[in-house]
Amino acid sequence: MTDDKAMNLRGVHVFKGALDGAEQAQLVDRVRDIARAAPMFHPETRWGKRMSVKMTSAGQFGWVSDRRGYRYEPRHPSGVDWPPIPAEVLAIWERFGAKGMEGAPLRAPECCLVNYYGEGARMGLHQDRDEADFAQPVVSVSLGDAGLFRVGNIERGGKTESLWLESGDLLVLGGAARLVHHGVDRIRFGSSELLPDAGRINLTLRVVS
Ligand SMILES: O=C(O)CCC(=O)C(=O)O
Ligand SMILES: [Fe+2]
């Protein structure tokens, strides 16, 4: 892990190439372990529309969405516990989480949300605001195909800026940028050879309670 290439996009800390190929491959194995214990699913929105991204989680809480709306839940929709957050993922939090803190001590992450973007999947502009403690950062890991990440403002609307996130890039939403709007417009399907069936995996680590 390296923070050699630190950049800042509207307060969002971006670490290009933070994970080398071996670290990325190891994380993909850990994601497979998570998906074996807690299978990926296409969440539905409150309005009955299926999200294009597939998801699962590790940790004490997982993020779910269905007709009742979106929220953190202590169990997978099937009723099984979410598997623990892998040690390799916790190490990333320990190393990079503090970059998004302004003084307060870094707590342990309680959720590792796993998003899988297949061909054509995207994620609309949103804020990560279902967590109780906004002093704690969100740390995001990109694996596989490149994704066009858009960053807006704390308030809705206004100008945005975009950046291609590639496999091994890390991002920290913290401090003044913790509640910035962000989303993924599209992925360059097949641009990476990390995943045998292509697509993009994104991990986000969050303190929930
Ligand atoms: O896939 C990404 O890079 C961002 C994911 C995201 O914003 C989220 O899961 O809340
Ligand atoms: Fe988000």
From TrEMBL:
<feature type="binding site">
    <location>
        <position position="126"/>
    </location>
    <ligand>
        <name>Fe cation</name>
    </ligand>
</feature>
<keyword id="KW-0479">Metal-binding</keyword>
<feature type="binding site">
    <location>
        <begin position="200"/>
        <end position="206"/>
    </location>
    <ligand>
        <name>2-oxoglutarate</name>
    </ligand>
</feature>
<feature type="domain" description="Fe2OG dioxygenase">
    <location>
        <begin position="108"/>
        <end position="209"/>
    </location>
</feature>
<feature type="binding site">
    <location>
        <begin position="70"/>
        <end position="72"/>
    </location>
    <ligand>
        <name>substrate</name>
    </ligand>
</feature>
<feature type="binding site">
    <location>
        <position position="182"/>
    </location>
    <ligand>
        <name>Fe cation</name>
    </ligand>
</feature>
<feature type="binding site">
    <location>
        <position position="128"/>
    </location>
    <ligand>
        <name>Fe cation</name>
    </ligand>
</feature>
<feature type="binding site">
    <location>
        <begin position="115"/>
        <end position="117"/>
    </location>
    <ligand>
        <name>2-oxoglutarate</name>
    </ligand>
</feature>
<keyword id="KW-0560">Oxidoreductase</keyword>
<dbReference type="GO" id="GO:0008198">
    <property type="term" value="F:ferrous iron binding"/>
</dbReference>
<dbReference type="Pfam" id="PF13532">
    <property type="entry name" value="2OG-FeII_Oxy_2"/>
</dbReference>
<dbReference type="InterPro" id="IPR004574">
    <property type="entry name" value="Alkb"/>
</dbReference>
<dbReference type="InterPro" id="IPR037151">
    <property type="entry name" value="AlkB-like_sf"/>
</dbReference>
<protein>
    <submittedName>
        <fullName>Alpha-ketoglutarate-dependent dioxygenase AlkB</fullName>
    </submittedName>
</protein>
<feature type="binding site">
    <location>
        <position position="156"/>
    </location>
    <ligand>
        <name>substrate</name>
    </ligand>
</feature>
<dbReference type="GO" id="GO:0005737">
    <property type="term" value="C:cytoplasm"/>
</dbReference>
<keyword id="KW-0408">Iron</keyword>
<dbReference type="GO" id="GO:0035516">
    <property type="term" value="F:broad specificity oxidative DNA demethylase activity"/>
</dbReference>
<keyword id="KW-0223">Dioxygenase</keyword>
<dbReference type="InterPro" id="IPR027450">
    <property type="entry name" value="AlkB-like"/>
</dbReference>
<dbReference type="GO" id="GO:0035515">
    <property type="term" value="F:oxidative RNA demethylase activity"/>
</dbReference>
<feature type="binding site">
    <location>
        <position position="63"/>
    </location>
    <ligand>
        <name>substrate</name>
    </ligand>
</feature>
<dbReference type="GO" id="GO:0035513">
    <property type="term" value="P:oxidative RNA demethylation"/>
</dbReference>
<dbReference type="InterPro" id="IPR005123">
    <property type="entry name" value="Oxoglu/Fe-dep_dioxygenase_dom"/>
</dbReference>
<feature type="binding site">
    <location>
        <position position="130"/>
    </location>
    <ligand>
        <name>substrate</name>
    </ligand>
</feature>
